[in-house]
Amino acid sequence: MSRVVWVALLVNTLSAILKVASTMWTNSTSVFVDVLNDTGDSVGLGLILLGLKLSKRSKSVLYPYGARRALYVLGLIAISIFSGVIFATAVYRVLASLLGDYYVYSTREAQVLFAAAFTFNLLYLVTTFIAEKRDSNNPAIEGTLIDAVSDFLGSALALVVVFTSSTLLDIIGGLAISLIILISALTIGYKYYQILVGRSPPKSAMKKALVAVLNIPEVKDVNVFNAMMLTEDEYMLVLEVEVDKVLDIDDLESLSARIESAVKSAEPRFKHVIVEFVAERKEPKTYESIIREIDTIQE
After folding, report:
1. Cα–Cα distances in angstroms (integers) from residue 24 to residues 12, 15, 103, in the given order
2. What is the pTM for the complete model shown?
């Protein structure tokens, strides 16, 4: 999977270099903002690679679940710092163009260089789209795909300006690319934020797990059903289960193993299952309210 990010970094860096070279023959604001976008993307992809390397760290007493969330931490840092700076710089350049005596010029050299860079953006988009289809649950690839789509749209706008030298289109394009940078950053950042604060898995996954537990005859009710995502493909589930009070320790150990197996069979992304047992109560069944709460989740 890191190979996909390496390819994305290489293609994005080549695109950025060509776009930087094209600025020698054009004063387009759209091109300038697009260069900022590609430069920030290259830095962000580098941090993602660092996060992937850290995520391979084995589990230990210090890091009981490994360091797989490093990807989200570094990704959020990259988005917060670089995207914020790039967006502010882009807006400043657009406003300066609006308030000044501004017209766009673009030579043949700029057109050739930017067209070549746009080809790399298209290659970047196609590569990440294929990778995402093969591994749709991977957060690094999904974030890279969102970035590739935003890059392609922004570069397409700037390409039109380079070939038309339209001042109006250039201003509009600069504003549009600035908004693309902001929307892309907020979308990916919010996704990473949800993982880091421990959001619950998709409700379909939780329902599968809950039904699998309730289908075990010894389980009388489920009082606690706390599910959270450690990463987008690694979930944790903490259960409090009501059982007949006559069950002894051996029976409970066997039942715990069966519950864990049933949950993992129903949804393999539940890698960690913790079960606590309490004696059956005469109160109304709690699992019904848990199901109702799951149904109210907005995805």
Report:
1. 19, 15, 16
2. 0.72
